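Notebook, bench 3.
Goal today: get a predicted structure for NADPH--hemoprotein reductase from Fregata magnificens so we can plan the truncation constructs. The sequence was checked against the plasmid map this morning, with no discrepancies at the termini. Length recorded as 680 residues. Pasting the sequence as submitted so the record is complete.
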Amino acid sequence: LTVMGDAGMELNVSPPDSTAQQDSLFSMTDVFLISLITGLFTYWFFFHKKKEEVPDLPKMQSVAAPVRDSSFIEKMKKTGRNIVVFYGSQTGTAEEFANRLSKDAHRYGLRGMAADPEEYDLSDLSRLSEIDKSLAVFCMATYGEGDPTDNAQDFYDWLQEADADLSGLRFAVFGLGNKTYEHFNAMGKYVDKRLEELGAQRVFELGLGDDDGNLEEDFITWREQFWPAVCEHFGVEATGEESSIRQYELVVHTDVNMNKVYTGEMGRLKSYENQKPPFDAKNPFLAQVTENRKLNKGGERHLMHLELDISNSKIRYESGDHVAVYPANDSSLVNQIGEILGVDLDTIMSLNNLDEESNKKHPFPCPTSYRTALMYYLDITNPPRTNVLYELAQYATDAGEQERLRKMASSAAEGKALYLSWVVEARRNILAILQDMPSLRPPIDHLCELLPRLQARYYSIASSSKVHPNAIHICAVTVEYETKTGRLNKGVATNWLKNKVPDENGSNSLVPMYVRKSQFRLPFKPSTPVIMIGPGTGIAPFIGFIQERAWLKQQGKEVGETVLYYGCRREREDYLYREELARFHQEGVLTQLNVAFSRDQAEKVYVQHLLKKNKENIWKLVNEGNAHIYVCGDARNMARDVQNTFYEIVAEFGNMSQPQAVDYVKKLMTKGRYSLDVWS
């Protein structure tokens, strides 16, 4: 800050003199004048000075504070783009679809870019009309019970509050959802409806993809009608056939400092060696597995209980939250891909984006080795999507195999049927495709560019932080099945977790993880009754709930009725947490323990049958006790059957018609008294 140059000089009003005579000349007038001057100076120094400094402060701040460029409009203008494809993605599929649409644009003389709404200021949508032939496309996935994905949360909040005039905006929406969920494609539907309400013009109808059916086919069907509509709207024509355009270029590093090479980290280099909170999706915590035990006593399946140590991580969680873990692929699959393609998997390389303006510099952390990419960063176990097959077709030297790949990637009915049967239903992963097509030997760098990212897996936490503040418990079942081709496919995460056995040095038992907050919460008042319905591994969050209710009771709190409906196949085989539940029941924490064993008798018995059996008690708890209902587990059958049972109970004891009973249950959901934590 500047200092006044002569601020102190005016005090010397007369030159100093040693004579007594001059000293005596000081009169009352002199004293007055000196006092006045001193007072004026003091005022000037303390007040005038500050007024002069103020204008300088903003200048200094503007120089010092870097401003993040969050305008996608400016970026589009700078790079000559006219189509922006935003994605709300939790598992990477919506992002993948957005990339495919943005690449499509060049076929029509247009230029597209995929964009993460979290990185930009979406209020700029009102300015998109500044760009000629501009269009905003939204690939929006719905997460959980009708929620936006993490990266679309800010966009969703803005849409709810916005009163912007979007009359110059042209848009289209493709939603990604699952029909087994109560709020099918809620996010896609909301974005489509809300943009229209704000005055935007819909160029093509809302697409609704269903992951319970064939999401890839839904997307292709929508896409093949979407582009002709865009062409008609803008008066443009396709410039030719779809061509293969590489998005990344390969750089092989022959002389590289290994300290600069990624070895599986999700974000910051060496973040697994030097852990720093806060921990999240881009900075997971390496938790040590302190316990890994088999829960079931028999049967073909392997059900397990794991305990992760989160001491010193500053990670906090609540009962009902989810833990996300980053798994690794099976090393034998990785080695087989390396062998079949004849490459050295330990080659250090980078894939660099050819579009220098893109925010996404690499498809995964680079530089790294092919082995690390295939182990930690790429999904090699799910059936590849049609765009991958299309891009790979050029590398098949056998004409028949090339034609087959192109056909499966086409939008023709015959091609779609072939893709469904040969890839999806046969559960052929990339290795199986390479094995079954001997002439298909793509360059490994292009394969790595095309494969989607390996995603974190979410598990309902099976513990209470009140009882286990330094640990997170997981309950899971290993996935393993034989495909139509006779191959044995294994679930990536569950088989990886199965092998995480606690050891003395701990190096083989580390799990990269973070916590994702959930709306699946116990009632605020401990005295409120709870009805928990969770067959199989759906028991997980309820172990945490019961632990917490037991802890509250120990604290002297009044705890309401705690009712559990649990189900498994056979009492002697897979009755999970049997001893713990019996103890809680004996102690009176668990006031009701209702267990359905589906295969211990001729007729199958499920949790909904026990609910019907106790329907009078259920209605009393809900209607008079204001009980909260929780359902966890399979969305496709169990959750739907349980909900239908509640409709029946409400209709019978509430003297309501079927539509009234449905409305009653829906209102319970709206009030947070009927909560779901389900998967398909």
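The domain at 328-454 is CATH 1.20.990.10 (NADPH-cytochrome p450 Reductase; Chain A, domain 3). The CA atoms of residues 390 and 633 lie 37 Å apart.
Flagging this for group meeting.
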